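Can't paste images in this forum, so I'm doing it all in text. The chain is below; anyone willing to post the predicted structure tokens underneath?
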Amino acid sequence: MRSEPLSAPAAVPASLSLTGLRRLFRDLPAPAPAMRAGFYQARFIGPWWLRWSGPLGVALGGLPGWQGKRFLSPDSATNVLARRGVQTECLHMHCSEGASPMDGRPSVQLHYGAQAPRPWRWVRDELRVLDSHHLLGMTVIDLPGLRGQAFPFLLQRQA
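Text version of the structure:
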């Protein structure tokens, strides 16, 4: 991920608590298909320990240098990594709209699929709209001890 800060909507302080971010997420709308296009730069948000450990956890999971997500179509996305100064794509995802298992409200869910490497086959990202340039994401990991937890991240649309 980039070391320089991204701009963030004033409504989302980078250090907002997990509870506060989950409440905010619950009240947001799902992104329309037109918003699911192009590259979105990622940033971990939430408590200090999550902002510190997020990049390490993603790297240990097989996505070192994670920069964000690129929507290939409204139904397909991929992760973007920076490796030796070059952007590469890794781990394609299927995008679907539906009721969130977290709160029953509409969201866009990104699934890696049963054939994805571990741990990604158990990961689901859910997205909702903050504003015309930002998506609030929640990563949910379907493993014992982590079920029911959601880890936030911010995606900012790039030109």
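The first strand starts at residue 38 and ends at 44. The CA atoms of residues 136 and 154 lie 5 Å apart.
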